[in-house]
Amino acid sequence: MLFEYSFLWRVTSLSKAINKPKVQLSHSASCLGAEEKEAVCSTIDHNFVGYGPRAAELEREFCRRSGRKYGFAVSSGAHALSLAMRALDLPQGSLVSVPVLTCASVPGAALADGHDIWLADVDRHDLTIRPESIHPRSAAFIAPHAYGRAVDVGALERLSIPWIEDCATSPSVTIDGKSAGAFGTIAVFSLASTKYITAGGGGVLLTDDADIAARVDDLLSVDRRPGATWKKHTATPLPGRLPDLNAALALVQLSRLPDFTKKRRDIAQIYMSRLGGLGLTQHGSDTAEHTYFRFLIRTAVSSGLIAAFLQERGIDARTSINPWLDEHFAGHERISAGPFPAADYWRNNLLSLPIHPLMSLDDAEVVVEALLEAIRACAS
Asked: Which residue ranges form the domains of the chain, and what is each CATH number?
């Protein structure tokens, strides 16, 4: 323990001495090129950048990939979640289960719609929501594919309650030959700048349910549809369809998805081959289906020490991929939770290494060498 404090003090002192170190290898990055530039410029050349034919094309393409009937391109992934919660039309004060490790916007969407939250534990192996930890009184739950690993769709569907399939970090996931977005009552995607594919901002909502689709269309309309009868019709609308300018970017990114996935897997393979003998717990790395939005390992010592060591060497490693929601919402009167044995196993030892399509294989080797150095320093 004394060494850990001493080591952290030295790293912190060095950081203050040289101000903030220049990041040489970013934790994540968009991969944009000539095709994206041409698509955006073409949209501008047509002198219309609002919701139009490119956004409609993006909706059709997401529906085609997932086999869904209805698709909506919207302003953000968080907006897609808010629309999804409203469109489920749950009774006020319903209980909604979400995993304890995920983006705060996930429970935020349910709280904003007047519901209570149950924080469920995650699977110790792959950090997806643990089906057995979902509260039996839940009226619905939100299940993110976790950082490139798919949820246990079969176990979740056997619960026989409405659920939102959150594909924000894992649009390249496939399950039994079907693409991400093909399973939940509603599926949502994020197209933010840090995500697997980007539109600079934006999201997508998919469903097969005609009533849900009609509610989403109604909510997106500033001037509400005449004759709409569902009980939340009088509630405030949630306009925000995706502009064509963003959709043009997203369409090119979506076409590059297989290449992005291959590059991430190639980098992950280097990490696994070089680190495999160190006894580190790796996030769901035993399957060829992993798409590696993040490369996560569990360190023997506090991951904060390792991350600080790497950051001083220009490598943007992180100890947090999302907030631990029991800490983030501590004391919130509408949030309750059970024990988190799996989450606690990872909580102070989670390390996320850089991985994105702009990295080269040589970059991955640099990360490995720096990580090995950090591990040796902490063990001495």
From this structure: 2-29+256-379 (3.90.1150.10), 34-255 (3.40.640.10)
